[in-house]
């Protein structure tokens, strides 16, 4: 049987690490459990990542970039039910609608994002500089997606310029969604998930007019 190249093996290990964190939590994560998911030895996992801390940081980056990539597809009108225009033409859906698609992907319901992973990651980032840097980079990318859509919507007359500009608005949107996610995951009785989308929609309307 041919040996897999290093890049493919690393991708497999990162995906397995994300699955293990989602299943058991970061505190219980063991390199041996990640290895067992793939039928590998723990030493091979360490060979590729050197330390458990490096493995965790790269696993969060791996999962986060998959989310951001899908968000960029939604922003471009290249995913879901909103196809891009023909022959490279601009997407047919208004920018404001695509912004709502991206927010719907990020919010703590109705998407494949696992908030158990990210809440664990925030906790780890309090004490791990590598994880904190990973999240700062991902946060910048999410804000870039939101800012681009808001700038497009403003230029098209679909909304007003938000208070403090689009950078500040993107920060407020992510902070609001992150706070909801914590409540949904940790204290679900405090959040009526049936009206969650309405809350988010009302928040966006308040921000963008």
Features:
mainly alpha; 2 domains; Arc Repressor Mutant, subunit A; Tetracycline Repressor, domain 2; 209 residues; elongated
Q: How would you portray this structure in words?
A:
With 209 residues, this protein is mainly α. The chain folds into two domains: 1-50, Arc Repressor Mutant, subunit A (Orthogonal Bundle), CATH 1.10.10; 56-208, Tetracycline Repressor, domain 2. It is built from nine helices and no strands. It has helices spanning 6-24, 31-38, 42-49, 52-75, 95-106, 115-125, 129-155, 165-186, 196-208.
Could you outline the blueprint of secondary structure elements for this entry?
Elements lengths: L5 H19 L6 H8 L3 H8 L2 H24 L19 H12 L8 H11 L3 H27 L9 H22 L9 H13 L1
Helix pairs in contact: 1-2, 1-4, 2-3, 4-5, 4-7, 5-7, 6-7, 7-8, 8-9
User: Termini separation (Å)?
Assistant: 60 Å
Give, in order, the helices and strands.
HHHHHHHHH
Query: What's the level 1 CATH class of the largest domain?
Result: Mainly Alpha
Could you say which overall geometry the principal axes of the C-alpha atoms support? elongated
State the fourth-level CATH superfamily of the largest domain: Tetracycline Repressor, domain 2
How many E-type strands? Answer: 0
Mean pLDDT: 88
**Structural class of the secondary elements?**
mainly alpha
Main sheet overview: none
Total number of domains: 2
Low-confidence blocks of residues: 81-87
Q: Which strand-content bin applies to the residues?
A: under 5%
Question: In CATH terms, what is the fold-level topology of the largest domain?
Answer: Tetracycline Repressor, domain 2
Named CATH architecture of the largest domain: Orthogonal Bundle
The residue fraction in helices comes out at: 55-70%
Assembly state: single chain
């Amino acid at each position: 049987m041919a040996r897999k190249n290093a890049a493919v093996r690393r991708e497999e290990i990162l995906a397995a690490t994300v699955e293990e964190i989602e299943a058991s939590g970061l505190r219980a994560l063991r390199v041996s459990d990640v290895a067992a998911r793939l039928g590998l030895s723990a030493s091979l996992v360490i060979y590729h990542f050197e330390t458990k801390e490096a493995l965790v940081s790269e696993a969060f980056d791996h999962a986060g970039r998959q989310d951001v990539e899908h968000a960029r597809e939604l922003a471009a009108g290249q995913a879901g039910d909103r196809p891009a225009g023909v022959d490279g033409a601009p997407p047919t859906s208004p920018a404001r609608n695509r912004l709502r698609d991206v927010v719907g992907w990020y919010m703590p319901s109705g998407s494949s994002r696992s908030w158990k992973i990210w809440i664990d990651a925030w906790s780890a980032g309090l004490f791990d500089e590598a994880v904190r840097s990973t999240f700062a980079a991902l946060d910048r990318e999410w804000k870039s997606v939101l800012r681009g859509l808001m700038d497009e919507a403003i230029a098209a007359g679909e909304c007003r310029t938000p208070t403090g500009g689009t950078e500040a608005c993107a920060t407020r949107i992510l902070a609001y969604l992150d706070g909801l996610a914590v409540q949904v995951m940790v204290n679900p009785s405090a959040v009526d998930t049936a009206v969650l989308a309405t809350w988010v929609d009302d928040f966006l309307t308040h921000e963008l007019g």
